[in-house]
Design brief:
single chain; 3-stranded antiparallel sheet; Arc Repressor Mutant, subunit A; mainly alpha; 246 residues; globular; two-stranded antiparallel sheet
């Protein structure tokens, strides 16, 4: 694939940083924007078959290429959809060039420290299903914690997508960019947190596996009989237990 020409008005350094990205997914997004000026969630999904467009956009940002998010009207549906274009005014010193790559040895050290499990659900998983993630998003703290195991966590793809979506809608991620705020967030330190994406919330992820699934099926059936969700029933049962064990 030949490199797109440098758009009029784009600085040579920023253009060089765009071309320096070699990973397929962010490179595809970057080249599309270089050629067309922007890319939409509709194009990410239909042209490039990305089933989670925000993840592809985050890949670009994590490579140190800042993007502006705005709304456009879809020519197909007439609805408002998200679009993305470069914003060189948001370049943060030391971020162009992207986050550091992780070695297999680094992942092995994380597994030795935390176990082969997702940090958010504590669910045991085979190593191949786990991905390394910055506890504090790269867009907020850069590679500040690159030398410390404590600065990273292991997540499966589903948990990583959930974290990505929540972080990208958080005011601290979008504009404030205070690492201390992220440091007290569930998505960074689920073992000890005071908020979830700056909202006063608490969260408990419970996974039933093997023979335990029979218990979940029974819970789900009971909830359905009483016209409640399993989550509502669990909260009620916990409240009753705490009330009777003061």
């Amino acid at each position: 694939m030949s490199n797109p020409k440098r758009p009029k008005g784009m600085g040579a350094e920023f253009y060089a940083a765009c071309l320096a990205v070699t990973s397929k997914r962010p490179r595809t997004v970057i080249h599309h924007i270089l050629q067309h000026g922007f890319i939409t969630t509709e194009e990410l999904s239909e042209l490039y078959n990305y089933d989670h467009p925000p993840r592809a956009v985050r890949d670009v940002r994590e490579n140190g290429i800042p993007l502006e998010t705005y709304s456009v009207t879809s020519s197909k549906t007439g609805r408002k959809i998200a679009a993305y274009r470069f914003d060189s005014t948001l370049v943060v010193a030391g971020r162009v060039g992207g986050r550091k790559a992780f070695s297999k040895q680094f992942k092995k050290k994380l597994i030795e420290k935390y176990g082969a499990r997702s940090a958010l659900t504590n669910e045991p998983l085979a190593s191949r299903y786990l991905q390394i993630d910055h506890r504090i998003p790269y867009e907020v703290a850069g590679n500040a914690s690159a030398e410390f195991l404590e600065g990273y966590m292991l997540l499966d793809a589903s948990d990583q997508r959930a974290k990505s979506w929540s972080c990208e809608h958080c005011e601290n991620f979008l504009s404030i960019k205070n690492p201390a705020v992220c440091g007290n967030c569930f998505w960074a330190f689920p073992e000890k947190y005071s908020h979830i994406a700056m909202r006063e919330e608490r969260r408990l992820d419970v996974v039933w596996t093997g023979e335990e699934t029979a218990g979940y099926d029974q819970l789900s059936s009971k909830a359905k009989q009483t016209k409640r969700t399993p989550q509502e029933l669990v909260k009620e049962l916990i409240a009753e237990y705490l009330s009777s064990h003061k």
